[in-house]
Structure formats: structure tokens, C-alpha cells
Here is the input.
Amino acid sequence: MWRSGRTFDIVGCASRAISNEISNGAKMRTVGSSRDKTWAIIRKTGITLLFKHGFHGMNLRLLASESGLQAGSLYNYFKNKDDFLAVIVCDIMKELLGEISAALEGLEDPVERLKEFIMVMVVWHTKRKKEAVVSQAEIRSLRKERYEELVGLRKEFETILGGIVNDGVAKGVFATRDNSLIVIALLNMLVGIAGWYKRGGRLSVEVLVAEYTELILKILDRRMEARRREASSPAGAAVSILKAAKAAADGNGKRRIVAQTAGQ
Here is the structure.
């Protein structure tokens, strides 16, 4: 479930694995080096194990074995199992944030920005299901201080979507009663896809993107919000009651006519 959190230093989170190497006396790796390739294997294997067994069901000895490494080699990349999970979750969130930023770059129109945000989130949470589930579910297994740090990192998604919604409201293309509430609700809708989506099922990724885009745009449609506001006002409530009464009266009248006709 999506919860609002404090802001967080993404660079600080991203640098943990490298800082661990320095503290362990290892040389910093260069891009494309064997250390980069080894970390990619550890990361992929770790995500699979976390998805399959959960944080408490996996162990570092299994991770090393499945990665084709000696157990001691893992400590060149992280300090312990808790640190490993924190680095993995941080890495996943950074990657998704990077894709969102790239998709939104150069776009000014809030509607177009929202469509791109929805597309990236839907595609990610369907095609990167393991990463999505691990980053959402296993974060709760972290110690309190690391948990609070990474919950703070999730605030970045809220900030991005909140900026889009706020801009749309300011420009008159979106309407909400509570921007912050809507943002959290929309994020829960989008990240929740990973929990139920199955590849090869009834709905394709393309259909999901189209359906979620239409649904969210309807939620934010200023005309629909105006109608909701009108309906919730005292005058609007009175109109609704009168319409319901008229419909009931019309329905009763039609039933009486049918009964009379049937009796003839």
C-alpha cells in the first residue's frame, strides 16, 4: 500500500554499494568491468530469490550459490543481508524513476505528462513484475532506519505525479477535491497492478495502458468533478431527490397502466 513519506537523497541511496566496496578495501569498479557484470548477476539472482522466497526465506549462502560465487565474495558489494535488500530496493526505485524522468523530459502539457507517467508505470508493473513486487513488499522487512529511508525515496514518485496534477488543476484541465489524496489513490492503483497481473492473461499490456489512462483521466476530468460538486451541494441534493421522486412516480404510473391493460 502506498504511503506518503519524507523526501530522500537518491544519490546517497545509490552510492551505498560503492561505499561498501571502499570500506571493505576494494577498488572502485569502472563501468563495464567484471565487477559491474558480477553485480548484475547478483542483482538479478537476488531479485528472483526475494520474489520466490521472500526476504526471510532466502539467505546469502543461497544467493552466492545461485550466482556462481563464493559466499565471501558477496561482501564486496554489501555488508549483510539487510544491506543487500536496501541496495536492491534502492536500485529498483532509481531505475523506475529514471524511466519516468526520461519519458517526461521536454513535455509541458500536464495531460501529456500524465499519459506518459501512466504508460511507464503500467508497463513497468507488468513487464518488471518481480522488481515491482520486491520493492513494494520486501521493504517492510528492513530495519526501521533503512525502512524509513526507502519509504522516503518513494516520496519522489508522489512528488512527480503531484506536480503533474497540481499543474493540471492550475491550468484548468484537471479538477480534484484534494490533490494529495488523489495522488496517493492513483499511485496505489498503478503499483497494485503488479499484484494481480499475469502475463498471457486476458488483458494485454497495451490494453491496460489504454484502460488505466482513460480511467485516470476521467477521475481528473474537471467536468465530472463539477458534476460531483453540484450533486453534493444542498441544491444539487434537492435536485437529485426530485429527479428520483419523479422517476419513481413515472415508474409507478407505467406499472399501473400495464396492470390495467393486463386486466382487460
The longest helix spans residues 234-263. The radius of gyration is 26 Å. Residues 2-12, 14-32 have pLDDT under 50 and may be disordered. DSSP finds 13 helices and no strands in the chain.
